[in-house]
Amino acid sequence: MTGEFALIHRIARLAARAPSPDVVLGIGDDAAVLQLPRGSQLVAAVDTLVEGVHFPIGTAAADVGWKAVAVNVSDLAAMGARPRWALLSVTSPDPRAALALARGAMACARRYGATLVGGDTTRGPAGASVTLLGTVPRGRAVTRAGARAGDDIWIAGVLGDATAGLACAQRRLHPSARDRASFLRALDRPNPPLALGLALRAVASAMIDVSDGVLADLGHVLDASSLGATLGAGPLPASRALLRAVPDVGARFAMQCRGDDYTLLFTASPRYARRIETIAQRAGLPATRIGSTHALRGLWREGPGLRPTRLVAAGFDHFR
Amino acid sequence: MTGEFALIHRIARLAARAPSPDVVLGIGDDAAVLQLPRGSQLVAAVDTLVEGVHFPIGTAAADVGWKAVAVNVSDLAAMGARPRWALLSVTSPDPRAALALARGAMACARRYGATLVGGDTTRGPAGASVTLLGTVPRGRAVTRAGARAGDDIWIAGVLGDATAGLACAQRRLHPSARDRASFLRALDRPNPPLALGLALRAVASAMIDVSDGVLADLGHVLDASSLGATLGAGPLPASRALLRAVPDVGARFAMQCRGDDYTLLFTASPRYARRIETIAQRAGLPATRIGSTHALRGLWREGPGLRPTRLVAAGFDHFR
Question: CA dihedral defined by A101, A102, A103, A108, rounded to 10 degrees?
Fold first, then answer.
């Protein structure tokens, strides 16, 4: 490859291998032309990954590409929206790494049913910005603002594995080789639960993806819905690997609040509890009820004593 | 401002000042939800500007924001599409510069009828990535591939002012203060001719924005349409300022082929010539016929002799 045009040409050829009927015009013109299904609304998210900020220096380019798409799939899943089209902006020190990054991005897009339809490439430090476009049936998007007092708060899947992966990459955690591999996979190749997000559209009152950290993200939902919440005294859902690698309850809880999990936090009326368990089972993920919402603002946690502990006051700023 | 959330909050407040009925959900959730008009297709473009690559170090943040949106408006104009929604990914060394950049981006979006509906912010060297989403009536997008042999080749507006601006910024050109200001404006605050692009939908067989340089961009159209072309012997359209600042014909021609012009190159049947002049006049821009297409591949130029000179062979690689 001798330059930008040759690189774009190769990426275009790879993307064209999986043509999609809703792509009227893909890579290679001034812009992509896309056909939305009838009765649907467009859902759009963008996320940029910068070397040394969002991923450790030395991360494989293909993993950066995968993650750049996955974090956006996570956003769309949290709206109950189906990803359809991705635009990828690559910054890379050399064309070979840019191609590897694009391949990783396309692999993730394909995994979630989306097609790469455009983007651009620039020489520079490794990084990627992905815009993911999807659709949702008209009026059916699940926002952060729909939670009602008395709703259950649920977490899909487990929390803390990506943070453990980062700790491994930074040589601050030394688990077994197998657990280490599983943590690094959670860090580098997140698999947001899209099918679950789509199925939850029927029952969730509010939904958000866990990216900033479970307490911060719960805070976003509570702020948007003008509510407070009390968390149960039990532990947050954790993988067996994390239970093994970080046996201390307090240290584990702290790791589980650091984010990068790309799973879903959602609220729902208690009458849907049974249905949610069935939905989660079908998606092959545990769903854990971690607390419930109430009109009193602020975030509390049930403890061993009689009165819940106030974790944080209202307002997301306090969570950081 | 103390951090990312405060910055996003301020940008969201600014964006909310101009609410748009087609924005179902704007900044502040996991993704934006957008309503396309009936009978339209989605048109999507993304472009990233990196400090020192796409704009000189020291460019005002507001100008970077403006240009990051404008280069995408240019892409949509070249499809005959109307911009509607912008997503902005900002990288900036400090929140104040990020806000200034976002303000510039929003000013340009507003100028072209688009609303900022999402994005993200990261600490880092100054740069911006903008995704611009727009709409076009179903099946009416103007691609690069529609030119037919015997079509006229047209340029809207003038070429070379932005390259002159870069030469001024790099102290390689020293025109009058007024011309210098006009060149720098062309470099930092391009105004792509959107209204013209929309009006040309009725007559243009192919269209592209002039960003890589007029010969390279013409080459993209010829490649996509499997045609060649011969340019007339006359000069390319230039501003009075450029005619004054660069009187040498050869040097001016070279500057005019460097790109960053963000105007439109299009092809059309000769029978539309009169109509195109009327359309351009209404848009307040000159339209100049610079040559015509033919089945013989390659790019030629009429000269003083009997035979046209071959400028470049077929294939875009040769243009660089």
Answer: 90
